[in-house]
Amino acid sequence: MRALTIDRSDPSGLRLADAPDPVPTSGQALIRVQAISLNPAEFRYVLPGAPDGAVIGWDAAGVVERAAADGTGPAVGTPVTTLGLSGAWAELRAVDTGLIGTVPTTADPGAMSTLPVAAGTALRALRELGPILGRRILVTGASGAVGRFAVQLGRRAGAHVIAVARDPAAAVELRDLGAAEVVTDPAEVTAPVRGAVDLVGDTWLPSAFAALGEGGTLVTAGAAASAAAAFDPGALLADPLRHTRSIVTFFLMGGDGIDTDLTWLAGELAAGRLRTRIAWRGDWADATPAVAAVRDSRLPGKAVLDLT
């Protein structure tokens, strides 16, 4: 098969080359990949430690070429979107059936490939907040891929969503996606919030925690900023109005129900009840511009590579 393999002799760090076909286990389906989407964290955390020749990547959409031998998962020919720790950037991908969502037959594979990491993270982060109907919640990094989905899903769940985005120009779009308020720094939030989803880190993480009221939960689900977060002495202590607050993390691919979540998200996106933003799309044979833009976090949305 062909794959985007790690090659540090290439300026992009990747090269389209031949690679061995994956061999599925009994609980994996073999997917013929049609589109992949790139994530900045893949370049920040995965690529630097991967050996030359490796095939990495988390998000891919395509069609089931061989169903899982144990009888789980979708049948041959089913359009799907998939999640995994590696192997997405290739013509063929072996995926655990619990990480496969089925998609409508008329859906665009490129759009579907943007869902697993971004929308999956947003959905699971909001669940960690507990019931949010009628409650105020905060989303930092709201103009990014995960943040945009979190704003939409939070509004769908009945929350009063306060979106935080550094660029004031993002306000119009974020309000259109469902944000009730848009600010440029979480420190601007004066009234307490019940929950916060932080996707940035750095100084915004302690500011988001400081915005929590009694019983509030902060979910840290990303670290777009490169600097480490630091809490001032006493910042984690409680007071009469801000006690029993918590900070929560989670592993996206841990737990059950990911296949169900991805299937639901795919249906919502295909029906127009959920929106994605593709900022760059092109053939994977010319991936260098997309790789550079994603690596440097220069895109106001997802980068999608179509396999031809």
Automatic annotation (TrEMBL):
Q: Where is this region: Disordered?
A: 1-21
Sequence ranges assigned to domain Enoyl reductase (ER) in this UniProt record: 9-305
Locations of Basic and acidic residues compositional bias?
1-10
Q: Tell me the CDD domains matching this sequence.
A: MDR4
Q: Which Gene3D superfamilies does this UniProt record tie to the protein?
A: Medium-chain alcohol dehydrogenases, catalytic domain, NAD(P)-binding Rossmann-like Domain
Q: What protein am I looking at?
A: Zinc-binding dehydrogenase
